[in-house]
Amino acid sequence: MTLQTLKERLPDYAKDLKLNLGTLVNETVLTEAQKAGAFIATAIASREPRLIEAVTAEFASTLTAPQLAAAQAAAAIMGMNNVYYRFLHLVENPEYGSLPARLRMNVIATHGIARETFELWCLAVSAVNGCGSCIVAHERVVRAAGLTPEQVQAAVRIAAAVHAVAVVLQAEAALSRAALVQAA
């Protein structure tokens, strides 16, 4: 399925999401690779198979093989880190923060692409997953590397729109199943 087909299948109540996707696909503040990876990493973080398929079909050819692997790795590692570091942030016992994580995170140093790009994708995934400490940490890294507030915002806007589309697709699937049950 293409991203255009997916947009056309969104219900009328999600018209703003259709428009936002169209705008974000044409975003120029990010490099093409930064934009493509943000879309792919956040689609994976959304856990919505049709969205992952459409976004990957739209953007994978924009990326080199190492960049595509890094976008996938950003979604994977942040899927773990966002849970762990959100726990550390939310728990009221500081003792946990002094304990070693004892979770492998080698890909953060061995992803094989520009550090600021990988960190930007990690930031976008962290926005989807709602981890405040990871958002703060990755935002500091990308800003220190020279990315602008507008570039950070663009990646987070992509994350927000992609996540919202996933929510709508999942809701529509559930509503369809409910309608089938009622009809039976």
TrEMBL record:
Protein name per Swiss-Prot or TrEMBL: Alkyl hydroperoxide reductase AhpD
Catalytic activity: N(6)-[(R)-dihydrolipoyl]-L-lysyl-[lipoyl-carrier protein] + a hydroperoxide = N(6)-[(R)-lipoyl]-L-lysyl-[lipoyl-carrier protein] + an alcohol + H2O
Keyword Cell cycle tagged: no
Top-rank taxon, per record: Bacteria
Gene3D superfamilies cross-referenced by the UniProt entry: AhpD-like
UniProt keyword Oxidoreductase, yes or no: yes
Pfam families attached to this UniProt entry: CMD
PANTHER family referenced in this protein's UniProt entry, alphabetically: ALKYL HYDROPEROXIDE REDUCTASE AHPD (PTHR33930)
EC code(s) of this entry: 1.11.1.28
Disulfide bonds: 131-134
